[in-house]
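Margin note: ligand = iron/sulfur cluster.
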Amino acid sequence: MSQTIDQIKPSYPLFREPEYVDNLARKRDGVEEGHSAEKIEEIFQWSTTPEYQELNFKREALTVNPAKACQPLGAVLCALGFEKTLPYVHGSQGCVAYFRTYFNRHFKEPIACVSDSMTEDAAVFGGQKNMFDGLENAMALYKPKMIAVSTTCMAEVIGDDLNAFIGNAKKEGYIPSEFPTPFAHTPSFVGSHTTGWDNMFEGIQRYFTINAMDDKVVGSNGKINLVPGFETYLGNYRVLHRMMKEMGVDYSLLCDPTEVLDTPADGEFRMYDGGTRLEEMQDAPNAIDTLLLQPWQLAKTKKFVQITWKQPSSHLNIPMGLAWTDEFLMKVAELTGKPIPDSLTKERGRLVDMMTDSHAWLHGKKFALYGDADFVLGMVKFLLELGAEPTHVLCHQANKRWKKEAETLLASSPFGKEGKVYTGCDLWHFRSLCFTDKPDFMIGNSYGKFIQRDTLHKGKEHEVPLIRIGFPIFDRHHLHRMTTLGYEGAMYLLTTLVNAVLERLDDETRGMGTTDYNYDLVR
Ligand code: SF4
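Resulting structure:
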């Protein structure tokens, strides 16, 4: 065997050794009944053509490589942002294993989340018994302060009623009646992870405030509430805290999983850590206003803020890039009467300095991008501010209004004139676009690496390098700790973008004695 105890090799380069190459070839030829290499290559080449793209965009009943995840995954992230809260998913064990591993691989942290493991009998007779046992066991074993319940497709298909099940569990004494158990139905055959986050957040708002509004007065606590939405950059929570503190603003960040998703290795396992205190949620209707930082994904939250809490929920765009961070800070200043401090003005000036330093390298570069609705809009806005050209803008889960908004944003700048917006499309559509109308780079989560590989296979001149910004990012470490919001976030984004451009330039100009006039150190 080529694997020895003295020299353990990972799958690469191990599987490139002759015995594995032979073994895998025999398996392929003998039992897999695959197509010949020539046929595969022929179909690959066809799949890169405009003719194939036309067929691809006619696809109706099939999604290939979706640029989104499912509702309960978002509900779990929302639950993790509250103090000592255990996310509980009513439904199949396999789904929950997927949520845990997804977050696990992205955040490189253990993820506390339980399921009541419905199986065939529960699928036929309903899952109430599972919920009774599940809630009782979860409380006894993991001692949470709150259990936030969402559902998988299976429970939704059979129509399990969370309100009734949780009520019955309390009535029959499986858990105390006063124990906090907000819930949200999160059917994954509609919406996405962002819808699930919104649903869960609304469930928590509802649980703590719907029957406790009599003594609430808008503005009486002098605070503003910030709602992050489905946010996986931990630096974004931290920069919001920092900016509010520098402004001297009293605020509540409603949902903050930074601590539990970034626990130190100091010998102590923390199943729960940090998070928004439940009292803050109870007090939230007393705030001056509730600002939604990713408004396109928070429709239910907004409705609740406006109708039940009677706050305006002032309109904002995601605070990404220069202008939209300005807007955010000015709105906070307007609502609270606190001026924007010199420290933030100086930080803004540094960002402008960086933008002028780098714009020559970014000007006119073409970027295709995909991701969640607010992230994509924020990224487009910042690319336009940098003089870069967003060419293909794809959001799998977005409505017609969003599409119009994205098109208006592109039309507002000469650099956006060539940009096209795609909604309801997946990464297989995106792959076609990368072949037929090649951008210089693509921006998105780790799944774009297959498109980079495929475009490279067609030839180096067709390769579209992936710049990893988004969720999930499995194949690079610690990027989830970075910041994409505020001036600080714009600095990170700019650094990432311009260095990707310079890396690519080096990559293309390494020919010794041929292209090394540009492989210099005089930049
Ligand atoms: S889409 Fe439905 S079945 Fe699939 S993982 Fe999500 S909840 Fe489970």
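The longest helix spans residues 486-508.
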